[in-house]
């Protein structure tokens, strides 16, 4: 079973670990996954290969940890006082995150097709992120009486991520305010209203 980036046998100083993962993200953008090497990560981050291999099992594990960190490093989603406002703020936050990792994901597409283990790691530790954040948004809405208890946060996140990647990878259109409002008003809101019936 794939190991979570947050749970490993060897712990690094947090600042040191972030420096290594930042180097990984830089190299993914510059040279892509196939040409990224542990040697070059170690050289640029001024870390030993032994340190890297004690912390991560190999390149796929290290790359998934780098992307996981990119997805979870954001401020708490704001409480705007309404479910619609919270959804717009949340989706806008995730749009900015996806814009940041878009070049990295493009560099991984070919590798994911040829390396199923990498695909599984990315699904477990990158694509699965966001559900807890959206769950908090829904809990607030339930507390305000805007939603019935039990909305499916995981389903909403899955739909949003599919829409985000479709727009980024296939259409090339911007993740702008008009698109965010369209997704919230025309897709998410009907989903949530129908689930409460």
TrEMBL record:
<dbReference type="InterPro" id="IPR023772">
    <property type="entry name" value="DNA-bd_HTH_TetR-type_CS"/>
</dbReference>
<dbReference type="InterPro" id="IPR011075">
    <property type="entry name" value="TetR_C"/>
</dbReference>
<keyword id="KW-0805">Transcription regulation</keyword>
<dbReference type="Pfam" id="PF00440">
    <property type="entry name" value="TetR_N"/>
</dbReference>
<dbReference type="InterPro" id="IPR009057">
    <property type="entry name" value="Homeodomain-like_sf"/>
</dbReference>
<feature type="domain" description="HTH tetR-type">
    <location>
        <begin position="14"/>
        <end position="74"/>
    </location>
</feature>
<dbReference type="InterPro" id="IPR001647">
    <property type="entry name" value="HTH_TetR"/>
</dbReference>
<dbReference type="InterPro" id="IPR036271">
    <property type="entry name" value="Tet_transcr_reg_TetR-rel_C_sf"/>
</dbReference>
<feature type="DNA-binding region" description="H-T-H motif">
    <location>
        <begin position="37"/>
        <end position="56"/>
    </location>
</feature>
<keyword id="KW-0804">Transcription</keyword>
<keyword id="KW-0238">DNA-binding</keyword>
<dbReference type="InterPro" id="IPR050109">
    <property type="entry name" value="HTH-type_TetR-like_transc_reg"/>
</dbReference>
<dbReference type="Pfam" id="PF16859">
    <property type="entry name" value="TetR_C_11"/>
</dbReference>
<protein>
    <submittedName>
        <fullName>TetR/AcrR family transcriptional regulator</fullName>
    </submittedName>
</protein>
